[in-house]
Amino acid sequence: MADLSAHPCAPASSTPSRRLIAAGYVRRASQPPAAPSDLEVAISVAQQLLDSDQVLSLREALRLLLRALDAEPVDEAEAVRRSVDAQFPAVASFLAQERGASQ
């Protein structure tokens, strides 16, 4: 077993936790996995529903995929809203708050 006691000649930055990690007794905490992108989620759903014979499931998978690719068919009002949201995020945030307060 490794000697983990403090040595008088050890550098000041050598803390007990660093020595435990270096000796292999303790592992560093791993980073949480990154959240999947919209495209990754859409691809996963489409792959899971590929063998489905239900039309509604397939339509939903295609809709998710098109939305992730920003190629979903929209009406003119929705297209304008998305364009404003993309170009002016502060204005979009304000309008979203106003829509929420009025409902």
List the helices and strands and how they pair.
Elements: H1 16-23, H2 38-49, H3 55-68, H4 76-87, H5 89-102
What does this structure look like?
There is one protein chain. The N and C termini lie far apart (67 Å). Helices cover 58% and strands 0% of the residues. The chain has 103 residues and is mainly alpha-helical. The longest helix is centred in the middle third of the chain and has 14 residues, at 55-68. It is flat. It has helices at residues 16-23, 38-49, 55-68, 76-87, 89-102. Among the domains are: 35-72, no CATH class; 73-103, no CATH class. It contains five helices and no strands. Helix 2 (38-49) runs antiparallel to helix 3 (55-68) and helix 4 packs across helix 5 (89-102).
Can you give the helix content as a percent range? 55-70%
Largest sheet: none
| Arithmetic mean of pLDDT | 78
Basic shape? flat
Derived from helix and strand composition plus strand pairing, the structural class reads mainly alpha
Question: Could you name the ranges where pLDDT drops below 50 across 5 or more consecutive residues?
Answer: none
The secondary-structure element order is HHHHH
Q: Give the radius of gyration.
A: 26 Å
Beta content comes to: under 5%
How many strands?
A: 0
Distance between the termini: 67 Å
List the total number of helices.
Answer: 5
